[in-house]
Design a protein that fits this description.
- By secondary structure, this protein is mainly alpha-helical.
- It has a domain of 82 residues.
- The chain has 5 helices and no strands.
């Protein structure tokens, strides 16, 4: 079940939403990178207690993991913004049909229609 092309107004709204999400993610990445910065942890006043060091290490690794995830989303958002500019936003990269508007609403940086995504996940 293919979708229909988005109107210019819908594309403008989608671009604004993607740009807002991008700005939030950039702020998140900055905060997480600062949290994961080893120099900040060394200045935190931890003594030689292994429990403190283990806890700090866990928190640093968690911040790094979240930062990496946010960076991947930023890449997907940047790609979606480029597709809007190129006039290919909302076109499934696999089958060439229009992606369902509901799917684009839920995942605005998606590159595949629901059917192609299902096929990819099931290996068909």
């Amino acid at each position: 079940m293919a979708g229909r092309p988005l109107t210019q107004k819908q594309l403008r709204v989608r671009r604004e939403e993607l740009e807002a999400e991008r700005a939030q993610l950039l702020a998140q990445v900055r905060e997480l990178d600062a949290e994961a910065d080893v120099n900040n942890w060394r200045e935190g006043g931890f003594d030689d207690d292994p429990a403190d060091a283990g806890s700090a290490s866990f928190e640093r690794e968690t911040a790094q993991s979240l930062s990496n995830h946010a960076r991947r989303l930023l890449t997907e958002i940047d790609d979606a913004l480029r597709r809007i500019e190129a006039g290919t936003y909302g076109v499934c990269e696999r089958c060439g049909e229009m992606i369902e508007p509901e799917r684009l609403e839920a995942i605005p940086y998606t590159t595949m229609c629901l059917e192609c995504k299902r096929r990819e996940e099931t290996g068909r």
